[in-house]
Amino acid sequence: MTVKPDFNKNANNAATTPAYLSIWDMEAYYGESYIVQGVSFNVHEGEILALLGRNGAGKTSTLRAIARLSDPQVNHGEIWLDHQPLHNMQSYEAAQAGIALVPEDRRIIGGLTVEENLKLAQIAPPIGWSLERVYDLFPRLGERRKQDGSTLSGGEQQMLAIARALCRDVKVLLLDEPYEGLAPVIVQEIAKTLNIIRDQGITTIIVEQNAVAALKLADRAVILDTGSVVYDGSAQEVLDDEKLRAEYLAI
Ligand SMILES: Nc1ncnc2c1ncn2[C@@H]1O[C@H](COP(=O)(O)OP(=O)(O)O)[C@@H](O)[C@H]1O
Ligand SMILES: [Mg+2]
User: Fold this and answer.
1) Ligand 1 mean position, distance from CA 103 (Å)
2) How far apart are CA 143 and CA 164, in angstroms?
3) Ligand 1, atom 13: closest residue by C-alpha
4) Index of the ligand 1 atom closest to the CA of residue 227
């Protein structure tokens, strides 16, 4: 096993615990388009980090790069998860290492029941949570376990997408706009669940257009603007800083 370099001194954050996931000077392209322009930040074990920024800032691209999807292509930089270099990995290897991306469109498989969607996540090791544990956290999914996944409400589909990630042995949950299109009461319900997931030691990066909801949930925030980090610090500080919010989040 390789030893993780100490990126803490460079990645401008004052957290005292060592970094668990380190992104260092990551550059990524779609073809010729230079999108992620030297991004560095740390995520600490068991914390929720809000990754924010305007539309097109590069949030989805950053999550995809961490999950090692083929697009965008990472041409420079390093990604380390708990002493393992992710930047040399393929997406399936990153998944085995414990990275789970829950994409914006949720990708629930229609024609399969809720339970079948979950069982499908458990067909290969490393297997994570049991169905019982998942239904304990998401009682709605338990109630609907025999229902076709495509007939669920938006909120339930989001819960299923998160639950499916937990059925894998996830270390870092990457959530791309989990609150999109959901009523405030459902957003609150999912936020409560994400808090419980954090209490169980899972690390989360949440990308959200609903920045206020994400900031209320998160411990820290990183703000991107045109593919670069413009803020890395406490989430509360962003909530308190009107100027910062207006400039980079338009809220
Ligand atoms: N598949 C793609 N091919 C080319 N450019 C893309 C692709 N996906 C996203 N982009 C561009 O990359 C930039 C960042 O996009 P994205 O990461 O989706 O931003 P965000 O998630 O912050 O809204 C945008 O300018 C977008 O147009
Ligand atoms: Mg996006």
Assistant:
1) 14
2) 16
3) 56
4) 14
Ligand 1 site-directed mutation target among 27, 32, 34, 35, most atoms within 8 Å of CB: 35
Could you give the CA distance from residue 67 to residue 37 in angstroms, rounded to a whole number? 17
Do 220 and 231 contact (CB within 8 A), yes or no?
no
Whose Cα sits closest to atom 20 in ligand 1? 56
Phi, psi of 142 (to 5 degrees): -60, -45
Indicate whether this model's pTM tops 0.90.
yes
Q: 2 is in which domain, residue-wise?
A: 1-98+172-178+205-251
For residue range 157-216, list pLDDT tens digits in order.
999 999 999 999 999 999 999 999 999 999 999 999 999 999 999 999 999 999 999 999
Residue 61 CA to ligand 1 centre (angstroms):
6
- Which atom in ligand 1 lies closest to the alpha carbon of residue 207? 21
CATH number, domain containing residue 33: 3.40.50.300
Q: Tell me whether residue 227 is in a domain.
A: yes
Per-residue model confidence as pLDDT tens digits over 233-246: 999 999 999 999 99
Closest residue to atom 7 of ligand 1, CA basis? 30
Pocket of ligand 1 (CB under 6 A): 30, 33, 35, 53, 55-61, 71
Output the CA–CA distances (angstroms, integers) from residue 125 to 107, 115, 118, 202, 229, in the order listed. Answer: 21, 18, 14, 18, 35
Look-up of token digits 């995809």? 64
